[in-house]
Each structure stands twice: as structure tokens, then as C-alpha cells.
Inverse folding.
């Protein structure tokens, strides 16, 4: 069943104190089918508290975005980093399982170190996947931006070692590297065949313009969503779609209507 999800990170951030309780306040105002839970480093000591708080939430958490610091540690790869990454990842899996999530979204390369030592990142993937499987979760890796190569090159490198890897495809990340419509090409069918989750966000900027790397709502940037969704429909994609577009201002005030407009746009694209 294809669902339109909202990332909790679209509403919860530093300006509103990363207060996870705000999710429950906006849940019934949103036209989404559920949420993608975004994990923050502040919450590791609050796992039981978070699980208890959301036990009666009106909408589910089908997907869970692993704390981005896990990818940072994997990529930095200094003494002790791998062990810390695995411990943190296991905590993420524990919370995801307790929230009833089905899949994990991971930045396998991340931070300033990014993909500078991709073979190490790929080696870590094996251990991370084994932990996820132990918790009954599907681990997916995202086509996040790169400092050295590009997401398509890195995904192909992972697939060479693990042909059955599951992928989350992000439109903004792809457009940042000028690769959005590359996924639609026949020669990249092997990658698309591994896509089990979509992140749909807009981007406005040039090739690898780091100053423009913001998570925009559909229509606020330059992405050709007409062509992209035509491909998605033709390909018969049946997985979930998450909107991560920032929906709070500098003071932390949440704009649910802005998110609802993006939800309606995605729903309309899927229905055409």
C-alpha cells in the first residue's frame, strides 16, 4: 500500500527545542497517512519516554530516519568511531521497533568526511544491516550528497558488493548533483529496481551549490516533478513517499497548511 508520510523533522528542530511532543499536537491537522520518525542525538536517553508518549498517536510511524550522526561516525572513521556508530544504530533500531516502524533510512556516507573512504562505509553496511535484521527492520540507504564522488556512483559501488541493497531515493539530493532524471534512464534500471522508499523535496540552486542545500516544498524550487512523477507512475512504484520539506519558521512555529499543500500536490501527481 502506497502511503504519503511526513517527516517529523519537517516540524521538529532546534527553533522549537526539538520537542517531540509537538508531533502529537499537529498529527490530526495533517492530511498524511503517517510519519517518518526523525531521530536526534538528544533523544537516546528518552527512548522509553518517547515510546510511551506516542502509544496512542492517531497515525503510524512506518519509516524511521536513523540519527544522521551515525553516518557521520561511519564516515569519519577515527579510533572508536565504528563501535560508537554501531551502538547508536542499535539504539535507533530499538526505538524504531518499539514505534512499530517497518524500514530504516540511513545516511551511509555523511558529514564532512562523506564518501572519502567508501570501501569502509560499505564494509560497515554489512554490520548495520545485520543489526537491523535482528530487530525485524528493513535497512535502506539514501542517495545523500557526496563530497568526493556522486550518489549514483556510490550506490552502484554498494550494489556491486550487495546487489540486494534497498534504497531510499531523495529528489533534492539527486537534483543537487544534477542526477534527478538519471534514475529514469534505462541504464540505471538496476538502481531504480532497488528503490523501496522516496523522499520528495524541492531544490533551487546550481550543481553542488552547498549554500542552496535547503529542504524546500514542491514548487518552491526547480525540480521537474512532472517528468519525475510520470516516470514513477509508469514504473508502477508502490512504496511509501515521505515529504521532509521544512514546515517551521525561525521561531519554531509550525505551518501545517504549507505541508498539507505539498501532500495534496504529491497525491495529485500520483493520481494523474
Amino acid at each position: 500500500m502506497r502511503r504519503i508520510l511526513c517527516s517529523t523533522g519537517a516540524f521538529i528542530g532546534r527553533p522549537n527545542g526539538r520537542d517531540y511532543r509537538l508531533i502529537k499536537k499537529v498529527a490530526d491537522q495533517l492530511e498524511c497517512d503517517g510519519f517518518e520518525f526523525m531521530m536526534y542525538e538528544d533523544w537516546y536517553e528518552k527512548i522509553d519516554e518517547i515510546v510511551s508518549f506516542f502509544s496512542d498517536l492517531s497515525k503510524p510511524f512506518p519509516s524511521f530516519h536513523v540519527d544522521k550522526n551515525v553516518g557521520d561516525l561511519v564516515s569519519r572513521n577515527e579510533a572508536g568511531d565504528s563501535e560508537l556508530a554501531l551502538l547508536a544504530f542499535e539504539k535507533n533500531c530499538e526505538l524504531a521497533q518499539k514505534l512499530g516502524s517497518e524500514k530504516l533510512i540511513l545516511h551511509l556516507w555523511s558529514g564532512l568526511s562523506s564518501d572519502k573512504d567508501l570501501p569502509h562505509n560499505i564494509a560497515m553496511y554489512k554490520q548495520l544491516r545485520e543489526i537491523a535484521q535482528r530487530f525485524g527492520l528493513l535497512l535502506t540507504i539514501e542517495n545523500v550528497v557526496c563530497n568526493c564522488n556522486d550518489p549514483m556512483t556510490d550506490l552502484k559501488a554498494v550494489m556491486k558488493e550487495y546487489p540486494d541493497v534497498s534504497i531510499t531515493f531523495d529528489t533534492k539530493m539527486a537534483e543537487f548533483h544534477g542526477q534527478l532524471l538519471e534514475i529514469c534512464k534505462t541504464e540505471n534500471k538496476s538502481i531504480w529496481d532497488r528503490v523501496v522508499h522516496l523522499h520528495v523535496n524541492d531544490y533551487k540552486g546550481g550543481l553542488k551549490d552547498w549554500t542552496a542545500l535547503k529542504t524546500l516544498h514542491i514548487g518552491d524550487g526547480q525540480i521537474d516533478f512532472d517528468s519525475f512523477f510520470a516516470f514513477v507512475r509508469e514504473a508502477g512504484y508502490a512504496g511509501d513517499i515521505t515529504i521532509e520539506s521544512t514546515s517551521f519558521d525561525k521561531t519554531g512555529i509550525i505551518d501545517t497548511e504549507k505541508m498539507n499543500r505539498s501532500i495534496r500536490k504529491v497525491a495529485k501527481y500520483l493520481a494523474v
Strands lie at 4-7, 34-38, 63-65, 103-106, 138-142, 166-170, 195-199, 240-243. Residues 81-99 form the longest helix (19 residues).
